[in-house]
Amino acid sequence: MSNPGNIVGGHKANLNNPNTSEESKQHSKDVLENEFAGGNVEKSGEKNPQNVAGGLKATVNNPQVSQEAKDSAQDRLKDMGQ
Question: Alpha helices of the chain — where are they, by DSSP H?
Fold first, then answer.
């Protein structure tokens, strides 16, 4: 089976899409209620360390970010060995 979070996200998006039919929206509601406890899906908690490091590096180099946030990101990168 595909990632449950992606399935739930797709059905939730369908419910909020003004271009989908009422029949399609009802199907999404049924799937969320019957198969996914109303759309509540547990998150794995595992984050990809390379993605985290990439986000922190982007923060450090973003001119729109405060110096405090840049310093925090730099400290976290050091803790990760980056």
Answer: 4-16, 22-35, 49-61, 67-79
